[in-house]
Amino acid sequence: MDIVARWPGSVHDTTIFNDSNIRGRFENNEFSPYCLVGDGGYPCRVYLLTPLQDPQTLPQQRYNNAQIKTRNPVERLFGVWKRRFPCLSLGLRLKLETMCEVIVATAVLHNMCLEQNDTIDFFENGPEMEQIDEIQVRIGYQNTATRDSIISAIFTLP
């Protein structure tokens, strides 16, 4: 798990991503042909594949199912991290700087636990598939071309 903790509480994930170094690196095609998989709160980009808000066809439904299954382990990882360190779920009443240090420290400790195979069967409690119940960010058609090509090439049966 890689983490940046420098933003106050309710900052939207998109705001954080838009200000990140990794976004610039993806926009400069540094990781091409690889891409990120995000939830519906992110705009669809050439390098950031998001679910369709309202899939109309069977290939679109297949894409959404595959996209959600791909993203689900990451979502579960955050759940495991929060269950391992309940202070992350219950809320921290600390100065912002101290809060950021606690968040980073728990992430480091969590990674160390994983490296030492100190796992707990938290994954059994997670849902098999997450539902798309987020508000889809309004996006332009030019940003969906890669996603549409993937749906046509991979999820449409001959």
Topology overview:
Layout: H1 13-18, H2 21-27, E1 36-37, E2 48-49, H3 58-84, H4 87-90, H5 96-115, H6 145-154
Parallel strand pairs: 1-2
Helix pairs in contact: 3-6
In short:
With 158 residues, the protein is mostly helical. It is built from six helices and two strands. The protein has two domains: 61 residues, no CATH class; 58 residues, no CATH class.
The largest β sheet comes out as: 2 strands, parallel
Molecular shape: globular
Strand content: under 5%
Instruction: Give the strand order of the largest sheet, numbering strands 1, 2, ... along the chain.
Output: 1-2
Write the element-wise H/E pattern from the N-terminal end onward: HHEEHHHH
How does the helix and strand content classify structurally? mainly alpha
Radius of gyration: 18 Å
Total count of strands: 2
User: What is the total domain count?
Assistant: 2
Q: What's the rounded overall pLDDT mean?
A: 83
Low-confidence stretches: 124-137
Query: Helix segment count?
Result: 6
Helix content: 40-55%
> What distance lies between the first and last C-alpha atoms, to the nearest angstrom?
38 Å
